[in-house]
Design goal:
The protein contains 19 helices and six strands. By secondary structure, it is mainly alpha-helical. It binds arginine (ARG).
Length: about 450
């Protein structure tokens, strides 16, 4: 079969080489964008008088017919036509004959493919932002219901200080808010049109790049044609923002997995998000959380893959750039689904508030309370820390906790300790009293939740 670019060639192409060079198996995902790009381009060619009115109308009609077939699933893509651009152009030829050949006036596949990807990512990033927002809503709603739910706060995965469960959830809310901001901010670099940069150097035709950019809804155009066709920073940013977000989701999943283990039993995931074992009848495994944790690996890999593809490329277009797509599609699919699963898991999980709170009662996570109590009565904090450390050691030897030490014993250590110590040592009091700005005190958490609810209802992104 003759290639659309076959004029200069004498030798026959070979199927296995064609297959290696082709991108149609994956870039067909850009079919919609490719047709939109061509519609804008041909309109511009008509507007500037580069094509006659008749030619413009013929090509437009043909493209709309191809578009219709695409939505109806009637297009058969072929490897012989290499990529989405040549496939669509071939379909156009089939619709309208030779005039289809005029569509490619003043443009190249290099600016065409870049345009397609800008259009594609603009949609995906907007969808991502919406899904992050939905997940943030789920987090804050769950937090709202659990402001006074007590859980152990950890450092080094050891009980550190009791905290509000809502406070823990709101930490993830903060991460996801930053993720959303990163995606929002990146839009201004995605929302730029490379169309009309042509192969690398622009064109001799009197094209109107601003016109076609406007047609496609872009806010700006690339100022340098070489940059326009070879820039993939906007994809890197997407992959990088996605990686950071997946890292957040993965950390959260790690906690969910721990929390639903027999040792913790803090939560129970619903059946929808769990699977069984083919041999152990009792198993209910948190597969979806594990998969999100696992899939973060491929998202990071896609970022490093593209960085590596780009790092040695001379300007402008090189076929290496065709390798920018699969990782982008894979990441887009992975993050969108992961966000949806996260929202579903959190919204529906059962939270065992009693078990969470109880696990803060048989531990030493109130040791700081005792030290703070003494420091509050004038003892230097370092000295208080030393005394409490010794008491903890003594308790561990006797198999008791700080709240089990009788008052006389406390008073033998220091008369500063009085009967109110037992209330100070209670987890609930400990949490309630941590009211410093951004702390876990109920008042602070309630403020944070209200603030989040307000910011979610104010913004419409
Ligand atoms: N399929 C190609 C890609 O994705 C389109 C651009 C081809 N340009 C070229 N000069 N061979 O990068």
């Amino acid at each position: 079969m003759t290639k659309l670019w076959g004029g200069r060639f004498e030798g026959q192409s070979e199927n296995w080489i064609d297959e290696f060079g082709a991108s149609i198996s994956f870039d067909q995902a850009l079919a919609k964008q490719d047709i939109l790009g061509s519609l804008a381009h041909v309109k511009m060619l008509g507007h500037t008088g580069i094509l006659t009115e008749q030619e413009t109308t013929d090509i437009q009609t043909g493209l709309l017919a191809v578009q219709k077939k695409l939505t109806e699933g009637d297009l058969q893509f072929s490897i012989e036509n290499e990529d989405i651009h040549l496939n669509i152009e071939t379909f156009l030829h089939e619709e309208i004959g030779a005039v289809a050949g005029k569509l490619h006036t003043g443009r190249s596949r290099n600016d065409q493919v870049a345009t397609d990807m800008h259009l594609y990512l603009k949609d995906i990033v907007q969808e991502t932002i919406k899904k992050i927002r939905t997940f943030r809503k789920v987090l804050v709603k769950t937090a709202e219901a659990h402001i006074e739910t007590i859980m152990p706060g950890y450092t080094h995965l050891q009980h550190a200080q009791p905290i509000s469960f809502a406070h823990h959830l709101m930490a993830y809310y903060g991460m996801l808010k930053r993720d959303q901001e990163r995606f929002e901010e990146s839009l201004k670099r995605i929302d730029i049109s490379p169309l009309g940069c042509a192969a690398l150097a622009g064109t001799t035709f009197p094209i109107d790049r601003e016109y076609s950019a406007k047609e496609l809804g872009f806010s700006a155009i690339y100022e340098n044609s070489l940059d326009g066709v070879s820039d993939r920073d906007f994809i890197l940013e997407f992959l990088s923002n996605s990686s950071i977000m997946m890292m957040h989701l993965s950390r959260f999943c790690e906690e969910l997995i721990l929390w639903c283990s027999h040792e913790f039993q803090f939560i129970e995931l619903t059946d929808t998000f769990s699977t069984g074992s083919s041999i152990m009848p009792q198993k209910k495994n948190p597969d979806m959380a594990e998969l999100i944790r696992g899939k973060s690996g491929r998202v990071f890999g896609n970022l490093f893959g593209l960085l590596t593809v780009l790092k040695g490329l001379p300007l402008a277009y090189n076929k290496d750039l065709q390798e920018d797509k699969e990782g982008m599609f894979d990441t887009a699919h992975t993050i969108l689904t992961s966000l949806e699963i996260m929202a579903g898991m959190i919204q529906n999980m059962k939270i065992n508030t009693d078990i969470m709170e109880k696990s803060t009662e048989k531990d030493f996570s109130n040791a700081t309370e005792l030290a703070d109590y003494l420091a509050g009565k004038g003892m230097p904090f370092r000295q208080a820390h030393e005394i409490v450390g010794k008491l903890v050691l003594q308790c561990t030897k006797q198999g008791i906790y700080l709240q089990d030490i009788p008052l006389e014993e406390y008073q033998n250590v220091t008369p500063l300790i009085e009967a109110d110590i037992y209330d100070a040592l209670a987890s609930r009091t400990a949490v309630k009293r941590r009211n410093s700005l951004g702390g876990t005190g109920f008042e602070q958490v309630r403020k944070a939740v209200n603030h989040a609810l307000k910011e979610l209802s104010d913004s419409n992104t």
